[in-house]
């Protein structure tokens, strides 16, 4: 029974410490539950440890207990532990004043519970007290309460060593509780007198009820705590996975339009180049630039400009199929990858895109008209490397701009005859890389 009483105190202390740790990472409603359940579990554990320890006493006389005093001692432990735990672990810091108040409440409750429980012995048993041991038990109760509450607050952080630290702390708390109890027990000398009839609870009855109820409740609390920890771990894993997915998306996609960014399109281009070489297929690379986009930004503001970019990409998407990849490189500059195509396919596609972009946009009651300039190169006719294809597509787009914008062109060698070509789409990309 002595071993069982220590185990009960240890489990109750651990649950109280674990509940205190959950307070800091829980919502307001959950935090209230863990504060109340942690304090109540500690109080019940202290009371159960006390009575299981008393039931372990070997005496030559029958011992019976008043039901009312026994129940009263239980509620003293329950209420004092719950109040003390709530005072100690509430807030971000544990001030000396709060610690002293909580320690006073818990130690007073523990001492009162212990000696009320001792007086619950039916009156045909007389008790003689050793005052020095009573004083020592009170000192131990105060010290144990202070240390326990201090540990409950400072072990709230859920670090890697939290479980080990709480197990060690629970062992220390259980040892302190047991020391106080058995010191208090040692202060009492029982003397039997009178008859043996009784109307209270017998030792056997009380031992069965206390052990059964205590172990069931502590078991339930342990299961609840373990399930909660498992659910928290699962939620954290899900949140971490979602965060990683978001970060991965941000690395490869444009935040405004949701299109692939430069990193992603370069990956797609390399994959398409390898595939086309292996299967001897054609693919097209298209540079697209919205004409007069800067005027829109300067006239109506960047908010309208952003909405224009989003609306433009949505219109372009209506002309594409799932095999094509549209990416935004920055500002109003886009790149389009069209796999497995020929010059006629690209001509038809760019015509459709130019037509849909040329339709008026209505944004926040403003009617806005823009056009596009696009240039394309085709693998392998215009180059065998991505660098060559980008240079040729840039030349084709610059040719459109030189011709007055609002159009598209596919590269042909005559475009290289244009002298003094300034840095345009591709050269700006290289410069910013």
UniProtKB/TrEMBL annotation:
It holds the Pfam family MHYT. PROSITE patterns: GGDEF (PS50887), MHYT (PS50924). CDD domains: GGDEF. Residues 1-191 form the MHYT domain. The keyword Oxidoreductase does not apply. InterPro entries: DGC-Regulatory_Protein (IPR052163), GGDEF_dom (IPR000160), MHYT_dom (IPR005330), Nucleotide_cyclase (IPR029787), Rev_trsase/Diguanyl_cyclase (IPR043128). Residues 281-413 form the GGDEF domain. One of its GO terms (cellular component) is membrane. The chain crosses the membrane at residues 6-25, 37-57, 63-87, 99-122, 134-155, 167-194, 206-227. The keyword Transmembrane applies. It comes from the Bacteria. Keywords: Membrane, Transmembrane, Transmembrane helix. This is Sensory box/GGDEF family protein.
